[in-house]
Amino acid sequence: MAGQGTSGGRKRCRGKEYSCSMELSLAVIGGKWKPLILWHLRDVATLRFSALRRTMPTITQKMLTQQLRELEADGLITRTVYAEVPPRVEYGLTEPGRDVIPILEALCRFGKEFEGRFGVEDADAAPDCAVTR
Fold this sequence. Notes:
This protein is an alpha+beta fold. The chain is built from five helices and five strands. The strands form two sheets. The chain has a three-stranded antiparallel β-sheet with strand order 3-5-4.
C-alpha cells in the first residue's frame, strides 16, 4: 500500500503501533469510555474529576483515572492540578481533542437514527420473555 513507509506496513505514533490510520484512530479514541469522556468535555472549559465521574455513573474511579491518563498522554485533554487542600484537578480538551468532536457528533447522530429505525425501550422494564421468530 502506498505511503506506508515501513516494512510490513507497520508504523508507530506516540507509542502506538498500527497498520493504517483507522487503527491508530481507534487506539487513541476507541473503547467504551474515551469517546464519552471527550463528549462530556465538549461544551465546557473544564470539568473536575468528580463532576466528570457523575456524568458516567457506571464507570469506576480506577477506570476513569486510567482513561484520563491515556487521553492526556495522547494529547487530547489537559490536566490541571491546583495546589489546594483538598487538591483540585480539572480536565479540558486540547485542540486535537476538539478536532474529535465532529466525529463524535456524527456517532451521536447515528445512534439517534438507529433508535428511530429500531425503537427504544425502557432499560428498567422487565424483559419480554416471549421469543419471537
